[in-house]
Amino acid sequence: MSEMRETPATTEAEEVRDPDTPPAARNQVRNWSAAGGWGFALGVGYAVLVRFYHAAGGEIGVAGEVSEQYVATLQMVSYLTGLVILVGAGACLVLAHRQFRVFPRWVPRVGGTEAPHGLVRAVVLAPALFGGTYAIGHWMTGTLTKILDLTGVITVEISEAWVTRDRVAGDLWEIFFYEPWFLAMGACLVLSGLQYARDSGVSRRAVRIVGTVMLVSALALFLYGTLLIVMGWEFAVI
C-alpha cells in the first residue's frame, strides 16, 4: 500500500521573495520574529499589571488622589485601554509568526489554511503600524515634556480630575516607566510588521515608502503633541 505523504507547510524561515533583493543578499535580511514574542509579553504584562490593576482600584503608579466623581470614568478608560493593548499584543504574534495566521482546523471551509494577505494587511498590519507610530510619537512627546516639567522649564497643566497630585513623582513614573513602555511596545509592533512584510514578499521599495510615512507621522505627532502641552492649548494631563 502506498504511503501518503503530507506536503510540508511553508515556514517563516523560507527564502525572502522580494524581487528587489539580489539572491546573494536574501539570507542577510534580518529576522525580527522575536519582536512578536516580546510585543506579546509587553502588551499582556502592561494590560494586566497596569491597566487592569488601575481599573480595579490599584494605586501603585498613580501619583496623587483622583476626585470621586472621576474615579469610575477613569477606571473604565483604563480597562478599555487594557483591552486595546491586548489586541496589539496579539497582533505582534500574528504578524511575526506564520502559525498564528493559520485558521484552526475546526473552522468550516478555511480550517488549516493561512489567512489571505489582503485580510491580514487590512485588519492586523495597518492598525499595528498605526499603533506603533502613535506609541513612538507618544514616547517622544511624553519624555521631553515630562523632563521639561520636572526641571521647571515648563509647567504642565493638571486636569481637574485630580484632587492632589505629586508632580515630581508623576513625572518620574512617566519618564522611567510609562514612556519607555510606549517606546518598547511601539518598536515591537513596527518590527513585527516588518517581519510580516518580509515573510509575505512585500517589496523593499514598498517597505521604504511605508517606513518614511511612519517616520514623518511620528515626528508630526511629536511636534503637535509637544506644542499642545508647552503652549497649553486646551490640553490637560489626566
Descriptive report:
This protein is mainly α and 238 residues long. The protein is 61% helix and 3% strand. The chain has 5 helices and 2 strands, in the order H-E-H-H-E-H-H. It has helices at 34-55, 68-96, 117-150, 167-199, 204-231; strands at residues 64-66, 162-165. It has a two-stranded antiparallel ribbon with strand order 1-2. Helix 1 runs antiparallel to helix 2, helix 1 (34-55) runs antiparallel to helix 4 (167-199) and helix 2 packs parallel to helix 4 (167-199). The longest helix is centred in the middle third of the chain and has 34 residues, at 117-150. Residues 1-19 and 23-27 have low confidence and may be disordered.
Task: Specify the structural class.
Answer: mainly alpha
H/I helix tally: 5
How large is the share of residues in beta strands?
under 5%
Low-confidence stretches: 1-19, 23-27
Rounded mean pLDDT score: 87
In angstroms, what separates the terminal alpha carbons? 72 Å
Radius of gyration: 22 Å
Give a short synopsis of this structure.
With 238 residues, the chain is mostly helical.
Task: Fill in the keyword field for this structure.
single chain; 238 residues; 2 strands; globular
List strands and helices in order, with pairings.
Layout: H1 34-55, E1 64-66, H2 68-96, H3 117-150, E2 162-165, H4 167-199, H5 204-231
Antiparallel strand pairs: 1-2
Helix pairs in contact: 1-2, 1-4, 2-3, 2-4, 3-4, 3-5
